[in-house]
Amino acid sequence: MNTIRWVAWRVMKEILRDRRTVAFFFLIPVIVMSLVYLVLAHDETVRVAVVARGLARLYTYDLERTLENEKDVTLALLDIPDEERDPARLTELIRQALEKGEADGVLFFDEALLNERFNGEQGTMRLFLEGSRPTRTALVGSAVASAADDLAASLPVVIDQNCSAECANSVNVKPLNIEKEYLHGSDDLRTIDFFLPVLVPFFVFFLTFIISDITFQRERARGTLDRLLIAPVGLGQIVLGYIAGFFIFALMQASVVMGYLLALLGFPVSAAQVAQLALIMLLMMLVALLLGLVVSFAARNEFQAIQFVPLVILPQVFFSDLIWSIETFPDWLRWFAYVLPLTHANMATRGVLLRGDPLWMYWPNLAALAAMFIFCLGALALVGKRRGA
Questions:
Q1: pTM value > 0.70
Q2: 297: burial class by Cβ within 10 Å (0-12, 13-18, 19+)?
Q3: What is the distance between the alpha carbons of residues 135 and 129, in angstroms, rounded to a whole number?
Q4: Cβ burial, residue 222 (10 Å; 0-12/13-18/19+)
């Protein structure tokens, strides 16, 4: 029993001596849970706009009020001139608004709807959807369907004077027909198709960071790095050599992940999209590789190197648009999300695969990843000199 107490007391003293270990046990869980709470405290909402022309405008007020009463809906106002009546031009302006992110869905109807109702038909409303986020698309569809039911009940009907009371009570109670038009995606886009693309940069970042962090720390612990520094070579040459060695395996691992992703996706992907995705993964690998080396230099032993793993990885999981949309974050937390490399990789990946955008449209995200690579390279040189490694 004395031996057990002695061993237990020795372990406790070792832990208390290392401030990083104490922080690992107590502070990191509290910080991460607090940040997650702040994210989840704000429910995701969708922005829906209503565009009507002619006499149909008489019914927009009630329709907008119905949409505003929906829990997860915010009414969006589009900068579309009231005098614009050309259907083709209106469609173009609506699609431009969706592309710019001014709304997640736009409900459009005109006098044709009233004429169809008077003629005993269902009547058609056009619902334009951005479509790249299935969860938002479902929220928009649900809110619009509910509002359309209320609108159908409020639309006037023409009753023939010879119609009986029973006939009058049954005049055109048909539900409105909602015709969906997608800017991106389709009815077949699954929720899993929205999350699968961003799993590629996540696994590339996670595995590359872990391998470089632990492996390089092991090289230091074994004294291999010290023996190399005795030789007539510089720290930069050694680091570049390690980068080249790790890069080959990271490239193979990224190829496996990308290949498996393409097999799981429920929509076609072109060769150009695959090439653009490969470029994003290349930048992601380089950032993760250098970040792992920086952490390895900063850690004194393998245990401390492992402690950095949740500190680096968990924020990437919760705050990089991997699970929850950044748009729902508080402003200050949104700025924190933009500091994370995975945020920029996720934005570019979803844009290329789900929206079909060319990669050059995401040059700010690519520039951010390049800047992070340069920053990690400078931090590695600085930490390496201080550690005397």
A1: yes
A2: buried
A3: 12
A4: exposed
R_g (Cα) of the chain, nearest Å: 29
How many whole angstroms separate alpha carbon 27 and alpha carbon 79? 48
Pull the structure tokens for residue 366: 């690519």
State the Cα–Cα distance between residues 342 and 345, nearest whole angstrom: 5
Closest CA to 130 of 109, 88, 100, 110: 100
Contact between residue 355 and residue 329 where contact means Cβ atoms under 8 Å apart: no
Listed in order, the ranges of the chain carrying CATH 3.40.1710 are: 46-182
Q: What is the pLDDT of residues 351-378, one digit of tens each?
A: 998 888 899 999 999 999 999 988 888 8
Q: Report DSSP state, residue 174.
A: P
Termini Cα distance of the chain: 43
Element (H, E) at 342: helix 341-353
Dist CA 384 CA 151 (whole Å): 68
Within 10 Å of residue 38's Cβ, how many Cβ atoms? 14
- What is d(CA 118, CA 322) in angstroms, rounded to the nearest whole number? 48
User: Does the domain spanning 46-182 belong to CATH 3.30.1360?
Assistant: no
Distance CA 256, CA 300 (A): 33
Tens-digit pLDDT profile for residues 177-229: 889 999 987 887 878 888 888 888 888 888 888 887 777 777 666 665 555 55
Kindly state the tokens that stand for 74: 């915010």
Distance CA 95, CA 80 (A): 11
∠ CA(8), CA(14), CA(18), 5° rounding? 145
Q: What does 89-149 look like in DSSP terms, one character per residue?
A: HHHHHHHHHHHTTS-SEEEEE-HHHHHHHHTTS--EEEEEE--S-HHHHHHHHHHHHHHHH
Spatial distance between the Cα atoms of 40 and 38, rounded to a whole number of angstroms: 6
Cβ atoms of 131 and 137 within 8 Å: the answer is yes
